[in-house]
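Weekly modeling sync, notes
Attendees: S.R. (lead), two postdocs, one rotation student

Agenda item 3: backlog of single-chain predictions. S.R. asked that every request posted to the team notebook include the full sequence so nobody has to chase files. The rotation student volunteered to paste the first one in as an example of the format we agreed on. Action items at the bottom.

Example entry:
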Amino acid sequence: MRLAPEGNIIIYPLFIILLFTCGYGYVFDFESIFIFIIILVVLFLFCLNFFRDPFRNIPNDKNVIISPADGKVIKIKDFEDPNTHEKLKLISIFLSVFNVHSNKMPVDGKFKSVKYIKGDFLAAFDHKASEQNERTEITIETKFGIMIVKQIAGLVARRILCYAKEDEKMSRGDRLGFIRFGSRTDIILPESIDIKIDLNQKVYGGETIIGTYES
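Predicted structure, as returned to the notebook:
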């Protein structure tokens, strides 16, 4: 199992604490710290599961947009930009603490802007989180126009890692970022995109095709 490097700061210290605790119990009094050891083991196994970063088979199909995140599709909506009056599509993916939290680049593209916005920490499944929570908004220039990916913090998520930099390019399937412990990822697309997923569908970052576009 491959682990995300973003977890090293948590997994390695936790492992060392677990080793020292087990060593102390073996030498002195195991029974007195048995419950503490069990808690550490459960926490360590949880972190190993959370920070897993499996290899994904990136689709070779042309003109497809892949999911930037693992999780459950909790919203698909057509809306109009209040400033430009452009018709757009919104897809929201909820990531529970049991999902892979490594974000993937959904298409080949160039980063037009990367904005970090401070905010609240509402539960990520609450639709208000899209506009009120702490988040990073990534605007990407693509073959089909502009798309936006939002990395949104959740109730327990407190650290958004984004590897996008303005004026740089990434290829479809590259690692776009990581969000620690529960979150939400929103995708905003032009109206012309043909959506290929359904509400409540489970999607996989780097693999699931969420939409297609005309060349």
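Discussion: group reviewed the output briefly. The two ends are 37 Å apart (CA to CA).
Action items: rotation student to repeat for the remaining queue; S.R. to check formatting next week.
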